[in-house]
Write a structure and sequence with these properties.
The complex is a heterodimer of chains A (251) and B (149).
Chain A: E1 14-22, E2 31-39, H1 45-55, E3 75-78, E4 81-84, E5 96-100, E6 107-109, E7 112-113, H2 116-119, H3 158-162, H4 175-186, H5 193-200, H6 214-218, H7 225-236, H8 244-250
Parallel strand pairs in A: 1-5
Antiparallel strand pairs in A: 1-2, 3-4, 3-5, 6-7
Chain B: H1 13-17, H2 42-68, H3 70-73, H4 75-85, H5 88-115, H6 123-147
Classes of the chains: A alpha+beta (251), B mainly alpha (149).
């Protein structure tokens, strides 16, 4: 039989109070549940939420996979800022910690969001693995028709959540998709760049960005979407003002 | 015996397939997301301040045009207004107006420099550089406005 003492991590000396967003399909409204979590000397946010799931509420839903900021599945907002749970130290977050799903995409349950609307913003043909990268001997897992890759981007959606423009309209294609387009433009490998520029050159494309740079602040993967959007604009206005060294820095 | 496999008879199916809520930053209605200060960095503050000063300048433009219509009424009314407009409260509002013009203008130059790809990755450095320039200009203007020069 498990006792309360057994549930504390061995070297836990202090606690943190977590306010966790809760919502299940069919609920009339969302709410926040409060949990006190004992902290060992080292604990990530993902560890803390899994502790809650294991010891306090097994119905808490969260999504994660790799534990090292590579898969992009554990993005949430903590005290208003976008982070990956797996690489966020709880000790850096203060005594009261509010955890919410990322913004601007629909919530499925608790901290899990529906990423379909995020992926739908990418240009239809371009972000898929290009022929030069395709390994014909590699088979995709069951249920996945083909591999998808966006270079450094780990498709976590934190940039879209942080973007103040995406907070006001769903029409804006958003930082991740535009960064993917710029990356493709940077290294086209035979792709039709004119068509890609047409896709970006829309009122809800690069011109919807208002240069708040929150996407680059939130990005955990050095994509620097805002600088890529600006570089894309530079190309669209003719490239006359863009010096090669500045473009290199934007990359 | 009747079949019960029809999807419309699965309990809770409608709730499970309904689109979930979309969380937005901001207070009140969702379009306020651009002004939510929680967890924002300097770029967002500049963006929000640019919008607010822009709205303020539009408001001032119409106010200014309205005030100028006093000239149509007569010289004495205009002179009365000018006398009112030279008291300290109005002069402080003038300084506020100059702040709005300087911030909106200089931030516009910053966004243009960044947004045309000239310096796509130097938004913070430009913000602080223009903040120094704007502050110096504002102090200079305030001394002249409040000092009666």
């Amino acid at each position: 039989m498990q006792t309360a003492t057994d549930q504390r991590p061995a070297e836990a000396t202090e606690t943190r109070r977590f306010h966790v967003f809760r919502y299940k399909r069919g609920d009339k409204a969302s709410r926040f549940d409060t949990f006190d979590v004992p902290l060992p000397s080292r604990m990530t946010l993902l560890d803390a939420l899994k502790w809650i799931q294991l010891h306090r509420d097994p119905s808490l839903m969260l999504r994660h996979s790799c534990y090292h900021a590579s898969c992009g599945t554990c993005g949430v907002r903590v005290n208003g800022r976008e982070v990956l749970m797996c690489v966020t130290d709880v000790h850096d977050l203060g005594l009261d910690i509010t955890v919410e799903p990322i913004a601007n995409v629909p919530v499925l349950a608790d901290l899990v969001v529906d990423m379909e609307e995020f992926y739908a913003r990418f240009p239809d043909e371009y972000p898929y693995v290009r022929s030069s990268e395709f390994n014909p001997e590699a088979s995709a897992p069951d249920g996945i028709p083909a591999y998808i890759r966006y270079e450094d981007c780990i498709e976590c959606g934190l940039c879209l959540s942080a973007c103040p423009i995406a907070a006001t309209t769903d029409r804006y294609v958003g930082p991740a998709a535009l960064a993917a387009a710029q990356r493709m433009l940077e290294e086209p490998r035979g792709a039709d760049t004119a068509e890609l520029l047409d896709w970006a050159d829309e009122p809800d494309g690069v011109w919807r960005c208002h240069a708040a740079f929150e996407c680059s602040e939130a990005c955990p993967s050095n994509v620097n979407p805002a600088a890529r959007i600006m570089a894309l604009r530079g190309v669209l206005v003719g490239g006359a003002f863009v010096t090669p060294d500045r473009m290199e820095e934007a990359r | 015996m009747s079949q019960t496999t029809s999807t419309d008879r699965i309990p809770g199916l409608e709730e499970r397939t309904r689109r979930g809520p979309v969380l937005r930053k901001g207070v009140g209605v969702s379009p306020s997301g651009w002004f939510d200060p929680r967890g924002r960095t300097i770029g967002s503050w500049a963006f929000a301040a640019n919008r607010i000063t822009g709205l303020g300048l539009v408001f001032y433009l119409y106010l200014h045009l309205g005030v100028l219509t006093m000239l149509l009424v007569g010289e004495s009314m205009w002179n009365d207004f000018v006398e009112l407009a030279t008291n300290t409260v109005f002069l402080l509002l003038d300084v506020l107006l100059i702040f709005g013009i300087l911030f909106h203008g200089l931030n516009g130059v910053r966004v243009a420099l960044v947004g045309t790809g000239i310096v796509p990755d130097r938004q913070k450095a430009l913000f602080w550089a223009f903040t120094v320039i704007g502050t110096l200009l504002l102090v200079y203007a305030a001394i002249h406005v409040l000092g009666g020069e």
